[in-house]
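User: Can you fold this complex?
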Amino acid sequence: MAVHLVSPPHLAPFPGVEVDERAARATLRRQVALLERRLAALQAESFADPGDRRRIARRGFAWRHAHLQDLEALESARDDLIDRVAQAQVARVERTKEIAETRAFLEEVRRAPERYKFVRIPMADLGEPGCGAYHSRPKLGIIGMLAGWWHVKLSSGCP
Amino acid sequence: MSAPADPRAGRVSPEVAADLPGITLWEVSTTAALKRRPDPGVRDRLRELASRVNGAVVIEARQNEIVHAYRVCFRHVGIEPDEQPTPYEGALLERLRSGGFPSTGVLADALLLALLDTKVGVVAFDDAVLAGGLRVTQEAGTVVLADEAQMVAPLFGPPIPAFAPSSATEAVRLAAVTPAGVPAIAAWEALDRVAQLLAP
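Assistant: Here's the predicted assembly.
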């Protein structure tokens, strides 16, 4: 979704004209709300890696007090969100590319598992939920290893 | 009183209302029996809710309309919600950290259960120590919840210890501050849920 942003005027366009700061703050608050929604959607798409979610949970939180924000503070919040949305969009494109490359690699491993002995591809790297992994393993254990019989198995991975 | 009164809308100071349009304070007083063991049914319900929480739930929560409303309001008052989580997200993150929703007392369980069911945070005060009705206002540049005399809690934060209920408290004042976008019915349901669970 494209977000059309309107920067509130820092300076009056004409000398003597008063800037309606209240309206400007209301506009900025609306922009912050739109950007927050966009950022949340991008983050929901990107956080397929369980490691990221566990890192968030491990981080402690210090209590912060609420303050009414002046024009400058709202602009700063808006601009910060713009940057974060842009970063999240880049991250999503990169992740999509990584997932596609990993899926292509998985197909190669499936076609010739004996060439990728003991290779392990976690579900998270394929953009899939869950903690399982595709694993190139010998059929029938040591016999398969000696005979060159390999296959790809999906393990659940869950403890 | 055997049943809690209907929630009433509390006061929001004009400067706060102007900068945070739609912010609403709901409060209700109710009797409470806090000096007892938590209900096993509540413990079971917390355990059931804990089993449904995983990392994906935590991340997707921010797209829920009520959670989104809190996150936007947090940003509007200078709180980064990824550093100081909204009440509901805070509970989910604590679940990831600790592995469950442990039962920690009648009041804490009731507040947590109402939060998990409605996504609306409720704060409880000892009704006997409050001076008059509650209001959302500014004090020393900070947006706070206050009674007629002084600040009793930071906005969206826990009560100041002097105003928090104890095991001897017989009547509690429950309050929910909801930003624009949170339906009143969600706040009423949260307050009612807590009141029902605290009832003697």
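The helical segments of chain B are 14-19, 40-51, 55-61, 65-76, 87-98, 106-118, 184-198. The longest helix of chain B spans residues 184-198.
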